[in-house]
Amino acid sequence: MRFVWAVAAFVLAALLIGAGIAQRTVFQGDTETTAAVAVEEGTPFVLIDGAALNAVPGAQTLRAQGEGTIFAAYGRTADVQAWLADSDYTAVTAGADGTLASALVTAPAPESTDAAGEESAAPTDEAAQAQGRDPVGSDLWLDEFQQDDVLIAPLQLPTDMSLLIATDGTAAAPTDITITWPIANPTPWAGPLIVLGGILMALGVFLYILGIRHVRRSRGPRRKGLPVPVTEPIDLSVEQADKGVISATRRGRAITGGKRPFALVPIALVSALALSGCSADAWPQFGSTPTATPTTTLVPEGQQAPAVTQAQASRILQEVSETIAAADEAMDASQLAERAGGAVLAVRKTNYTLRDEIDDYDAPAAIPTKPVEILLPQAYDAWPRTFMAVVNDAEAKTANIMMLTQDDPWSNYKLVYSANLEAATEMPALAPEYVGASAVPPDSSFLLLAPQDVAGAYADILTKGEKSEYYGLFDADTDMFRQSVAEDRAQRLEDFEKTGEDTGKLSFSSAAGPESPVSLATLESGAIVAVTTHETDIAKPTDSAAVIKLPKNPTVATLAGKTQSATGFTTTFSDQLFFYVPGQGSNEKIQLLGYSSDILGAKVIDK
Fold first, then answer.
1. In whole angstroms, how far apart are CA 579 and each of 235, 404, 512, 558?
2. Contact (CB, 8 A) for 533 and 511
3. Is 453 helix (H, G, I), strand (E, B) or coil?
4. Which tens digits make up the pLDDT trace of 361-374?
5. pLDDT of 527-546, one tens digit each?
6. b/e map of 224-237 (b: 16 or more CB within 10 Å)?
7. Closest by Cα among 162, 154, 138, 158 to 75
């Protein structure tokens, strides 16, 4: 009877396990859905809107096929549309029924001015068409992909992101484009069926073992009523031989008992089958489905999007650093201009001139890229855009503060201000990077001093010291730069007087630099303001028969083009300065956060 129950358990287990596996295989149905994207042939770009990408819930997988290298990138919809503002492209959107629809978007015709001064549409012949723009490497993209012939990219984009597909920006974009989404197709009874089948199989194995054990115990003849044999004397030699037989029989039983572990193989198989159905959608979900609840956010209502994300800023800084490093090595000013502007561009171009003439002149310090300790992007949907970054330079054991700006959607970010933070600098309270900060106008009256006036006021302090009318506005206790400038000027004046022998005069002056200030607001109604000042050393002879010589100053001699002059020399240094400027009514003073100073130029004084 035990065998009957064992066979029944095996059969029922096979049915249950088979039913569970069938739910996960042949009866499960489709696990994904695919939609083809209709593309207008001949357009260099295809823009798939975020709503189209989310026409079906879940992650998206892009597949684009064509000849040559295929490019895809994604970013905020407004940014991608701004980048495509002057190009023809195919826009893919989601229809009311969830299907994908495409439409050709034509760039507005460029305008020209006729002889009468009136604007008119420019001719649209082939000679007047603009060359295509390569989308690779734009700072607007949050991420980009490139593959030859077939591009497959897994994505998970929200509705406010869009996807751009192209080749090189000139040739036609691929037309064979599909988007695939996974389909939620749960099988809630697959897991219980497989586990229940495994339990029944284990029970069947147990019953089968019991049946075998029962048969073995009942084996052998059962004789009743037979005559008892006559008792005879025991032969000892025969007894010894029988002992050997008894010993052999016991070993045989031990061997037979050793075969029992093979009965554990079906149990191991059952465990493997049970584990195969343990994914979340293979089990029934009890209770109500959780629904999303509104959460509070720190983003102010009506706040515009931050210019960059943390990952985007890190990638931009890496590319800026690599481009500037390559330009520094080759002393290529045109390559430098691709990623540097303002004071950073000016002082590095001077460095290239000096290194070209002076063999042992030091190259400028590399731009550090990580880790980005502080990121403050401008919250602005239009252009120009700015973001500030503070990066710890582990090798130099200093922290660098930088300002980078982007002029328009088609330009990359350029490093326009760079300085070292002062030791033990305490940064003011800043907005998180996912919120961003607004730019402060140069003439803002809400600060203790308008950004456009900060450089001039500080230059006046460098020139006049405590006699300056602005002296009380700036914190002198934490300003190590002002102290170092005073000490350096005193030392150079002493050295000049020793060699001049009353035949020359050395004087110093400071003024605001030509670069526009860059300012971002802080949380306490203040602002971080980046400016430049120019320090000028003026060496003049006081005797008509005297000349100013530069025997030990190859730097000034190289930039001025002469080693001596009867009229004298001027040497200019560019100071890149970062200040924290409190708001109006604050009891705080303007604090210097960081600085850098480099030689900018030298020339002979005109008569």
1. 117, 16, 14, 33
2. yes
3. helix
4. 999 999 999 899 99
5. 999 999 999 999 998 887 78
6. eeeeeeeeeeeeee
7. 162
